[in-house]
Specification:
heterodimer; A: 331 residues; alpha/beta; Rossmann fold; 8-stranded mixed β-sheet; 3-stranded antiparallel β-sheet; 19% strand; globular; B: 613 residues; Pyruvate-ferredoxin Oxidoreductase, domain 3; 3 domains; 7-stranded mixed β-sheet; 6-stranded mixed β-sheet; 23 strands; 20% strand
Chain lengths: 331, 613
């Protein structure tokens, strides 16, 4: 197949985009259209599948094949579509409620199977479409419409959950850094197997500033560390600080002593360590690719079995199916 | 020594033992051999849901009933003529069903005090009068098997596990069946384990020989092969296997590949297991993480152009409800199989009931019409599965196919279909043109085009939000919603144009008995041979339940009374009463986890006819 040249606008559908003004989803849509256009994949081979929530309107805005399904089930539907036709490039747009709560079961099972899907999880730490209830990623104590005295639930760390489920590609990016997002999405697109990307996304209406302690210009250099494969883990305004890991613990060291990041290690321990920084006030939070390893791919294997049995037994006909050797003649 | 041969037109045998005694294998072997002999037959396996309930107890009793005949039969029989009881629990649980004067073969080797205690028998049923009125054949099968296998290298425990084949051998002798099919089956089953082949074959032969040697019986029975069988090729088939084959055949006939997303659930799991073996027919099976993932995966496969199928039982159908609604909205073909079991909730998973009808027809949020059909016996499961596939792809709709436990696990000889006479319904795909593609532009049947990802020029988006007519874009327009709800309803109701008016069997006046699903056999038997010859009674069986076939009013008008026997609390009757309010539909409910007997239906029919007199 010759690579197809597309421009981002070729991927825009004729539907009016209806997210709130200032919503982080616009930035994600633009980055996704830019990255997808560069993949060399024709539009008709792209398939956008979503569940329910603000993020899940995504397929309507992409001039590709699309399926806006029901709450939580996008990954199950996408698993079917991808396995039925492995030639498709199947992307799933989902949110923290859709993916981690009602769809949590499908999430972990999709990851353990390693279906070749690209999952974009828009994490705004709130239920937006239902107007402001706490989600499985809302921090403990946050006041929302359904937690007027503060949320009691402990939240999931999406990265740790994905790593724990055996994900082969896990990354995090943020709506306010389009360049970073494009790099991460490109890496996800190039990964063979399930690629899980958590995208911090600001909900201007119901959870404005959820990530501001880490993402605003004045704090981000110290609050975030970008994991670039092959590069040292450095951060700070002058990139003067670094991270060093040992025995599952990270500590701040001078930049010159920082560990060089490798996301393709056999062991997920370092990825877990970097994910665990989320809960450390004294350490920066990690963005970038936590893990990218190769494992057998579900949809390929399912179809390979069909091909293998067909090669061995020959293509079955209607007659073979019904007229088997244990049949007997009467009359 | 010559043994008298007693010719019988038909016989019902029930094998009953502990669930570890191999009664299902024994029953299935007797069935396969009997099918090959050329009798008509019907079977009814009845086993506990526990894989191994405590040995020797009443809840652990596993039974297998087979009815075989020289002429056409429709049911596994009401009560057995011959009961084989391997232990006291099996005897006391089943003796009440044995016909008066029937034969009971008892394994006395399992009637020790300990065995009696496990079965909670205060007295020994062999001695306390329980068996008065029956012909009792007492054999210490345990001792006989040990004697026959005294040279076997197997342990005593393993030797005793061969007792079901000794019993089978004895029954083969009694009913003049050949041993060869089972000898061959054992050789294949235990290939590479010669000591097991030898032991089981020896036990079978010893059981057979004991009939001649021990003069336990007054004679041997002979049930001649059917002479009126339709000529053709036959297979012995169970309902779940027939259903799996029908689904695979449906995909062939639609020129599609079958794509099954499923989750194990009794009694539907066999369908997944059968289909998993058919990979060379292009069948993809995916055992998903839950019922919802099962149907969603299948629907995702349909979106990509495969024939999506999901299989389940009642509790699973409840979980799939929302996704069925999505299939209604996106108008994608999907076959949903519900092998019903007794409920509600977990209920009695290995027992029969047909109480998911209303759930199937009405059990979704909002206006979500879905065609529903039901199979009536194992062979019919094949035809119904093909029909479900036809409706799904011709009308671009989810279809619910109902089966039940009784059909799923019952067996019968199946006259293999003439391949040239099977319906063919290849799918026509839309092609791209200069005009914009309209994914919700309907054909004469109101079906929308099935464009699949991968085709340039047909890119479109579907989903659960209401669709604008023609374009399929999201629409909240009031009039558009009314129009689309009406389209979806009219499309499903229009399926009635493609289905024949069912034929009525029996009298053209008097009492009409209407049934659906697995009550077919019992109703047909009761109507074919009523309690009193000449009783004006007829049978109408409905395969298509939603929409109802056309022409039913004209049929109903010919009868004075209409009876609807169901293994539920009157669900079909409720639907009929609502659709045809000018007629009165009398219910006859049975919810015991057991099928109707022809006997109880005959009594009900007689009682209803007497009231009129």
């Amino acid at each position: 197949m010759n690579p197809v040249e597309l421009k981002p606008k070729d991927l825009k559908s004729d539907q009016e985009v209806r997210w709130c003004p200032g919503c982080g989803d616009y930035s994600i849509l633009n980055s996704a259209q830019a990255v997808l256009a560069e993949l060399g994949i024709p539009r008709e081979k792209m398939c956008m599948i979503s569940g329910i929530g603000c993020s899940s309107r995504f397929p309507y805005y992409m001039n590709t094949y699309g399926f806006h399904s029901i709450h939580g089930r996008a990954l199950a539907i996408a698993t079917g579509t991808k396995t039925a036709n492995p030639e498709l490039s199947v992307w799933v747009a989902t949110g923290d409620g859709d993916c981690m709560s009602i769809g949590g079961n499908h999430f972990i099972h999709t990851l353990r199977r390693n279906v070749d899907l690209k999952i974009l999880m828009f994490n705004n730490r709130i239920y937006g479409l239902t107007k402001g209830q706490y989600s499985p990623t809302t921090p403990q104590g946050q006041v929302t419409k359904t937690s007027p005295y503060g949320a009691v639930d402990a939240p999931f760390n999406p990265i740790e959950l994905a790593l724990g489920a055996g994900a082969t590609f896990v990354a995090r990016t943020v709506d306010t850094q389009p360049k970073h997002m494009k790099e991460v999405l490109k890496a996800a697109a190039e990964h063979k197997g399930t690629a899980f990307v958590e995208i911090w996304q600001n909900c201007v209406i119901f959870n404005d500033g959820a990530f501001k302690d880490m993402t605003t210009k004045d704090v981000r250099d110290d609050a975030l560390v970008d994991m670039v494969p092959g590069q040292p883990l450095v951060f700070g305004k002058e990139r003067e600080k670094g991270l060093q890991m040992s025995c599952g613990e990270a500590k701040v060291v001078p930049a010159a002593e920082a560990d060089v990041w490798a996301c393709d290690a056999d062991s997920p321990v370092k990825a877990f360590t970097m994910a665990s920084l989320d809960s450390r006030a004294d350490l920066p939070t990690a963005l970038g690719v936590f893990r990218a390893v190769q494992k057998p791919i579900f949809d390929e294997q399912v179809n390979a079995q069909v091909a293998m049995v067909t090669a061995k037994k020959g293509k079955g006909t209607l007659k073979d199916l019904i007229y088997t050797s244990d049949a007997w003649q009467v009359g | 020594m010559t043994t008298e041969v007693i010719r019988q037109d038909d016989v019902v045998i029930r094998f009953a033992g502990d669930s570890g005694d191999g009664m299902q294998i024994t029953g299935n072997q007797f069935t396969d051999t009997t099918a090959k002999v050329g009798n008509d037959l019907a079977t009814f396996p009845d086993f506990p849901s526990e894989i191994r309930a405590p040995a020797g107890t009443r809840p652990g009793v596993s039974g297998f009933q087979i009815h075989f005949s020289s002429s056409e039969i429709f049911t596994p029989g009401d009560g057995p003529d011959v009961l084989v009881a391997m232990n006291p629990a099996a005897l006391v649980v089943n003796i009440g069903d044995l016909k008066p004067g029937g034969v009971v073969v008892v394994n006395t080797g399992s009637f020790t005090d300990k065995d009696l205690e496990k079965a909670k028998c205060a007295t020994n049923p062999l001695e306390d009068g329980t068996l008065n009125g029956y012909r009792v054949i007492e054999i210490d099968i345990n001792a006989r098997v040990e004697e026959a296998l005294k040279d076997s290298p197997l342990t005593k425990k393993d030797v005793l596990r061969c007792k079901n084949f000794y019993t089978l051998g004895l029954m083969y002798w009694l009913f003049s069946r050949p041993m060869e099919p089972t000898l061959d089956w054992l050789a294949a089953k235990f290939k590479g384990k010669q000591e097991l082949i030898d032991a089981n074959q020896t036990a079978l032969k010893a059981g057979y020989a004991s009939g001649d040697i021990h003069e336990m019986f007054q004679g041997r029975y002979e049930v001649a092969p059917r002479s009126d069988s339709q000529p053709g090729m036959y297979r012995n088939i169970m309902g779940n296997e027939a259903l799996a084959l029908g689904l695979a055949a449906g995909a062939h006939l639609a020129e599609l590949e079958l794509f099954l997303g499923s989750y194990p659930i009794t009694p539907a799991t066999d369908i997944l297991q059968h289909l998993a073996k058919l990979k060379n027919h292009g069948v993809v099976t995916m055992q998903m993480e839950d019922e919802i993932a099962g149907i969603c995966t299948a629907l995702g496969g349909s979106f990509a152009g495969k024939l999506g199928v999901t299989t389940t039982s009642g509790p699973g159908l409840a979980l799939k409800g929302e996704a069925i609604g999505l299939a209604v909205m996106t108008e994608l073909p999907l076959v949903i199989v519900d092998v019903q079991r007794a409920g509600p909730s977990t209920g009695m998973p290995t027992k029969v009931e047909q109480a998911d009808l209303l759930q199937s027809v009405y059990g979704r949020n909002s206006e979500a019409p879905v065609p529903v059909l039901a199979c009536s016996h194992p062979g019919d499961a094949f035809d119904c599965a093909v029909e479900a596939c036809r409706i799904a792809v011709e009308y671009m709709t989810p279809v619910i196919l109902l089966s039940d436990n009784y059909i799923a696990n019952g067996a019968e000889p199946w006259l293999l279909p003439d391949l040239d006479k099977l319906p063919r319904f290849p799918v026509t795909r839309p092609v791209a043109s200069d005009e914009p593609f309209l994914p919700y532009k309907r054909d004469a049947k109101l079906a929308r085009p099935w464009a699949v990802p991968g085709v340039a020029g047909l890119e479109h988006r579907i989903g659960g939000l209401e669709k604008e007519d023609l374009t399929g874009n999201v629409s909240y327009d009031a009039d558009n919603h009314q129009k689309m709800v009406q389209y979806r309803q009219d499309k499903v109701l229009g399926i009635a144009d493609s289905i024949p008016t069912p034929e009525v069997y029996g009298a053209d006046n008097g009492l009409l008995v209407i049934g659906w699903g697995s009550t077919y056999g019992a109703i047909r038997s009761a109507v074919e041979k009523p309690a009193e010859p000449g009783q004006p009674v007829a049978h109408l069986h409905l395969r298509h339940i939603w929409p109802f076939p056309k022409g039913l009013s004209e049929i109903f008008a010919r009868y004075d009374q209409i009876l609807v026997p169901e293994l539920n609390m009157g669900q079909l009757a409720k639907m009929l009463q609502s659709e045809y309010p000018e007629f009165r539909f009398q219910t006859y409910d049975k919810v015991k986890g057991k099928p109707f007997t022809a006997f109880e239906l005959r009594e009900k029919i007689t009682a209803m006819l007497e009231v009129v007199r």
